[in-house]
Amino acid sequence: MSGKEHVVATAATVSAVLTYAAGMNAWQALAVGVMVAPAALLPDTDTQRSTATQSLGVLSSIVCRVTVRTWAGPHRWRTHDAAVGPTVFALATLVMSWSHPGRVAILATAVALGLAALDAIGTVRSTALTRTLATAAAAAAAHHTTIPYTVMAWSPLAVWIGCIAHIAQDALTVQRVPIPGTTLITERTAR
After folding, report:
1. Which of 181, 184, 9, 187 is closest to 82 using CA atoms?
2. Could you please report the per-residue DSSP string of the chain?
């Protein structure tokens, strides 16, 4: 699936679930869905062709290489394991949320992925350079602001939900995803 499809499907699914299962107002549910949707791009940080890894040009490309070499393995391996990928991304977000620089990084990443998502669905046209500049501006503004931990408390859950939604969507495709937990006990070489 493409980044555009992941973002739209995640926003719609999360909004629908919150409206019907949690009894949320439709507008509130849509707002939460839109906040969670960019996190659905994170599992594809294991491939250079994804919307997430092209969001900030060279910088996001480096993040992709580090992700693949340190823990992820080839595309659709550990980042797409429902027991491993979402947990690693959510724990990383949780640890980052404990410090001010980490909270700034979370907000900057959210801005970068949000702009990449808007570009992918055709709402906003942007380049890696304009996304990088906008992300840097958001990071600079956030750096000079006190961001309480309570404001960021929702971010690990939002990341986990976005990643789970992405993996569930990919599980419906021909290429499938690994059985949850199996990537911890087996290795896989690149296809």
Report:
1. 181
2. --HHHHHHHHHHHHHHHHHHTS---HHHHHHHHHHHGGGGGGGGGGSTTSTTTTTTTHHHHHHHHHHIIIII-STTSGGG-TTTHHHHHHHHHHHHTTSHHHHHHHHHHHHHHHHHHHHHTTSS---HHHHHHHHHHHHHHHHTS---HHHHTTHHHHHHHHHHHHHHHHHTSTT--PPTTGGGT------
Tens-place pLDDT, residues 34-66: 888 889 999 999 888 888 888 888 888 888 888
Tens of pLDDT, residues 88-125 = 999 999 999 888 888 888 888 888 888 888 887 777 77
Q: Are 4 and 120 in contact (CB under 8 A)?
A: yes
User: What one-letter code names the amino acid at 162?
Assistant: G
Q: How far apart are CA 123 and CA 131, in angstroms?
A: 14
Contacts of 56 (CB under 8 A, 6+ apart): 112, 128, 131, 132, 135
Q: Looking at this protein, which amino acid is placed at residue 89?
A: F
Task: Determine if residue 172 is left, alpha or beta; phi over 0 gives left, psi from -120 to 50 gives alpha, anything else beta.
Answer: alpha
* 79 token code pair: 């980042």
- The sign of the CA dihedral 125, 17, 162, 98 is positive
What is the chain's mean pLDDT, rounded?
85
Matching residue, tokens 């006990």: 185
- For the entire predicted model, the pTM comes to 0.85
